Amino acid sequence: MRQGKRERLLGAAIELLHQEGVERTTLADIAHRAEVPAGGVYYYFKTKDDVVTAVIDAHAAQVRANLTEIESRHDSPKARLKALVEQFASQRELIAEFGCPLGTICSELGNRHLETSPAAVLMRLPIAWMGEQYRALGRDDAEELALELMAAYEGSALLANTMRDPSILTNAARRITRGIDAL
Known about the structure:
Layout: H1 5-19, H2 27-34, H3 41-44, H4 48-73, H5 77-89, H6 92-98, H7 101-110, H8 121-136, H9 142-163, H10 167-181
Helix pairs in contact: 1-2, 1-4, 4-8, 5-8, 5-10, 6-9, 8-9, 9-10
């Protein structure tokens, strides 16, 4: 069954904001990709900022769902952290081509002159979750380790995208996993 118009518009917005960026993507581009008449966008989203908010909310919901799935499949904190790293690395081809879906929107929106980026939640969710895993391992430096893991991933994602080399993420995942095993 074909998705409803709002779902198609949101799916198109998620893809386009990742591939083209927030500033370069127009509401008309989103309508075209979703196969919805251009005026139909305004029925669901009044402004481009409304679209961006919906994309951030959709990404946040997906992050929560991914973390919940990891928790349901893995019993130990180490296994959970390694599963998250594996999940990051599984996107290596897409990331090499377009950048990290979360990191790119966070970076672009972070450049706006706002006190706090509306996309910051997309980094805070996995960092907080990783911190919980490290605390469960008895680490007093859980927050620092969580930030380091996210920085290692996002830095590798940036390099993989800049150099168009997915192996950078594969190698980073291997190093991060060895670090988790060493805990």
